[in-house]
Amino acid sequence: MPEGDTIHTVARVMRPDLEGQVVVLLEVHQRPCAWAEGSRATSVEAVGKHLVITLEGAFGVRTLRVHLGMKGSWHRYRPGEVWPRPASGRRALIATAEWLFVCFGPKEVAVGEAFSGDTAGAARARAVGHLGPDLLAGVAAGQGVFAARDAVERARHPGLAAMAVADVLLTQTVASGIGNVYKSETLFLERVDPWYPIGALDDARLLAIYERAATLMKVNVEAGGWRTTTRVTASDDVPAAERYWVYRRARHPCRVCGALVRSRLQGPMARMTYWCPKCQVHGKVAGSKTAF
User: Fold this and answer.
1) Domains of the chain listed by start with CATH number
2) What is the model's pLDDT at position 158?
């Protein structure tokens, strides 16, 4: 499942060939959007796991928001180029005179409404206003990571106090961008039991968790962003099994203590969690952490 770092990479790749260009065709669920013809794509931004394309034209300002979900992906083609995937599988298409950007299999595609006197920033804010702070905010502009403290404040909502920390990490209204890989890897590196209630963590430890997740994703973005990894750099040519500490390593020895890594479905979304029962003792928060 693409996580925040992958979507930031998608935005970075699409931006030079789409931002500022005239749109000749926009399709959503294979239906042409006549209003978009002749508009201009003024921004291509990643916010958490969502890609937001802002369009401006005679209609004002509107957004195209795409959440890839588990199986979605973007592809770029030249006009007339043969697509390796069946066109019947497309769910969004945005075309300029030079390029076609096609999205297959996303979880969600949504077009925002236009409001009188709207600005691009306001339209984009409406499109992703339901999300928590993007942990990678500012990376594309070279400003680093600065959203972790905001995430901690949101995680202190009384309604979340009894929730397991792993479930809160996946809650995109608290902080956007963390998916199943970074959930498991971050909690291992911070030596936190995935089922530990978030309300029992002090602010310093919770901040360290969100900062760790942000740092892991930031390193991936800056190294290319296409191959998710937490243990080695994305540029290292190693098998997938060597890229992680615990993710997808159930029944393999922990790289730190040698105990067998465990896995179990967790939370309302029944997502798989991976953890080391010795490094992440049930019901406890360890004092030592793994250096990164």
Assistant:
1) 4-128 (3.20.190.10), 148-275 (1.10.8.50)
2) 94
